[in-house]
Specification:
Layout (H helix, E strand, L loop, with lengths): L1 E6 L4 H12 L3 E7 L11 H4 L9 E2 L2 H6 L3 E4 L3 H14 L2 E4 L6 H10 L4 E4 L5 H17 L4 E8 L9 H14 L3 H4 E3 L13 E7 L5 E8 L4 E8 L3 H14 L5 E3 L1 H5 L4
Parallel strand pairs: 1-2, 1-4, 2-3, 4-5, 5-6, 6-12, 7-9, 8-9
Antiparallel strand pairs: 7-10, 10-11
The structure holds nicotinamide-adenine-dinucleotide (NAD).
Nicotinamide-adenine-dinucleotide binds next to helix 1.
């Protein structure tokens, strides 16, 4: 049984992960962590979740949690995940990062931790989205620059970063299909007198509202036709299942920063 620590246990993803790990035959919930000062710290997890006692106390002592775990699953916030990457690597604990919204500096720090630690980082843990990335790369390459690429995503009203990590991954896939760098062509959310669309741009647009779990369209708009690749997430458990699968997969790997494509065996 792989011993799992869940970071951010009270969060939308954290609560989903706790349930999933408890149901798993391959993993056991070793520790649950929340930020210092959070109302759940010191409480029984089951009680805090509004149910019966589970015998697992929510804590804020990360080092103690890591000392009892083989893997930590982390859907929190960028600065939390960057700090955790270093500590997990130092403790020899595999680290699954689902958090999104990282800066380039953050990503460099995580890559550094991946030199000694075992990390899976994915802005989207679902099989469908990872397949969609491959398709996006393929279609972008086949259709060429005559087809304008626009990526439209929709998420719930609580999401704090835009564009979504998944939208950026899809943008990277489209850019790689066209053999350009995303940073050179990305056009994020137009406003005002923008002028005509720049040739070769990859546009990003973010809808925020209600309880959308996550929807992504990659639109290839040509003269006389449009091709639209779409993914719709209808259950957040999808991401939790992917994250648990990644945590189990990492147990057999050497140091490195891996993607969900590696975990799913879909190639790098
Ligand atoms: P949320 O706000 O509901 O949960 C985040 C939790 O982290 C909160 O409970 C918060 O208290 C906790 N936290 C903050 N600082 C902490 C610390 N220092 N130690 C321990 N816990 C801490 O957010 P969410 O909707 O669960 O999403 C979290 C992240 O996961 C976001 O970046 C989101 O974009 C991302 N996400 C990724 C995927 C994916 O497939 N990769 C899917 C869904 C969400």
């Amino acid at each position: 049984m792989v011993r799992i620590a869940v970071m951010g246990a009270s969060g939308r993803m954290g609560q989903m992960l706790v349930r999933l790990v408890e149901e798993s035959d391959l993993a056991v919930l070793a520790a649950v962590v929340e930020r210092a000062g959070h109302g759940w710290v010191g409480q029984d997890l089951g009680r805090a979740m509004g149910g019966v006692e589970r015998g697992v106390i929510v804590r804020d002592d990360l080092d103690a949690a890591l000392s009892e775990a083989d893997a930590v699953i982390d859907f929190t916030a960028p600065q939390v995940s960057v700090a955790l990457a270093e500590r997990a690597a130092a403790s020899g604990v595999a680290h699954v990062i689902g958090t999104t919204g990282f800066s380039d500096e953050d990503l460099a720090a995580i890559a550094e931790a991946g030199k000694t630690g075992r990390i899976v980082r994915a802005g989207n843990m679902s099989l469908g989205v990872n397949l969609l990335m491959g398709l996006t790369r393929q279609v972008a390459s086949a259709l060429g620059a005559d087809y304008d690429i626009e990526i439209v995503e929709a998420h719930h009203r609580h999401k704090v970063d835009a564009p979504s990590g998944t939208a950026l991954m899809l943008g990277e896939a489209a850019a790689s299909g066209r053999e350009v760098a995303l940073a050179d062509v990305a056009d994020r959310g137009r406003h005002g007198i923008t002028g005509a669309r720049a040739a070769g741009a990859i546009g990003f647009h973010a809808i925020r509202g209600g309880d959308y779990i996550g929807e992504h369209d990659v639109i290839f708009a040509g003269e006389g036709e449009r091709v639209v690749l779409r993914h719709v997430a209808s259950d957040r458990a999808l991401f939790a299942r992917g994250a648990l699968r990644a945590a189990l997969w990492l147990q057999g790997q050497g140091p490195g920063e891996y993607s969900m494509l590696d975990v799913l065996g879909l190639g790098g």
